[in-house]
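@channel anyone free to eyeball this complex?
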Amino acid sequence: MTERKTLTKKDINQLFLRSNAVQSAFNFERMQAMGFEWAMIPVINKLYDKEEDRIAGYKRHLGYFNSHPWTAGPIFGIVASMEEKMANGEEISEENIQAVKGALMGPLAGIGDSLLWGTLRPIVAGICASLALTGNGIAPLLFVVILNVIHFGMQYYGVNFGYNFADQFMDKMESLQIKVWMEAATILGLLVVGGLSATWLNVKTKLVYTVGDAAIELQATLDKILPKLLPLVCVLAVYGLLRKGKSTTWVMVAIIVVGFILGFFGIM
Amino acid sequence: MNITTALLISVITGLAYLQRRALGDCQLERPLVLGPIIGLLLNNFSMGLQVGASLELVFMGAQAIGGSVPSNVAIASALGTTVAITSGTGLEGAMVVALPVAVVASTFETFAKAACAFFVHAADNYADKGDYKGISMMVHLGNGFHFLAYFVPTFLGLYFGADFVTNLMNNIPANIMSGISAVGALLPALGFGLLLNNLSTKDFMGYFFIGFALAAYIPSFGVMGIAFLDIAYVCVYAFNKMNRAEGDA
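replying in thread with the prediction:
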């Protein structure tokens, strides 16, 4: 009976540090495979003594991987925990490990894209950009600090949580709590995008029309109907075009052409 | 533009991107961050800050989802901010440069992502031999390649293009300028529309209009006040829903 191989606190810390490089050498063929591999190398080296086991380990983690750089932490922890079990002869197969990677990377990326890129970053960016526009030089620093305290906090906690609670993680992912908070994040995101559209979209018309002898500014009339009517129309138009399947670049070019014409002729 | 400044800005832009690869994406390549840094370098911090914040609103919705290549925000911000300051035209100058650059420069990142498939195959070979140092080397080389994909175009753009565009900007007629500023005013709609498109589901779409109406009718709330209110509401929503679900069970 040989001694049980275990990963120490130091190994997990190293895994956390290296897991931040998950997007390394990003490529279209296997996406974040190189980054995942680089994080797992020390784990493999620590757990397996035999050359053939190490080679199998290196090859295992060079497969397709694509998740979100801020939310993939638990996957590293769980996989490390599974590798540890496998190295000690417990009933874990290579397929099990691949299955867990495959099953978790999509949902965690989804959380990252909607919750972080789609909600958190626009909120923080909106607030900090507003501060910066009033001349506050600390705003960019605030932007970086707020986001990265959350970023590295999540990653550190995620890797450790994944390693320590590998068995329960799948249940927790499917739990009601996660689902409700995802829903809540979507609602928050929509509220914020609505607020940002009304605050930071400065679309106004310069058109003036005459009724009898009086010249009336069209914008003043519009403001009586609904303040920020034009910004709302613009955002909904973009949304509609994207829904119809127009590409981002297509919409961007359309905005540039239309905007330029409106500005050139003094309509906007 | 002199070669030292051009090199310095290009290295900063390359590093700002490299951290997305090697440091977990700390958001350092956002215009809000790059703008003021370049402003500092060019001795006009306040304009860098203004331009960066404005470009941030324009590019707010641009994000990389599932490995797709979005518009190249970092190179666009670097070149845009530089021209804004050297020509003294501010946001309008930044726009003229940043928009086409954002689209064109995205091809460099695409190229790097395609080319890095080579390093994966090389890593496969090292893995077969059990040579983990070789694998690590391929990871670093791949990152180096990604760095160059931002560094080289930024440098070429600054060194060969900045003066030309600056001269051009100084001779632009007024109505073309107002056309450009109208584009600048309209463009944040793209970011907001993209976010809306990512978030919207039929069940929740109404919340967009609630958020809009709050800000449109009560401007004195400010972005901070609205964020505060929104977060409070969402907590009430989530806790209530969980309590109710527990009651059912």
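from a first look: The CA atoms of residues 210 and 216 of chain B lie 10 Å apart.
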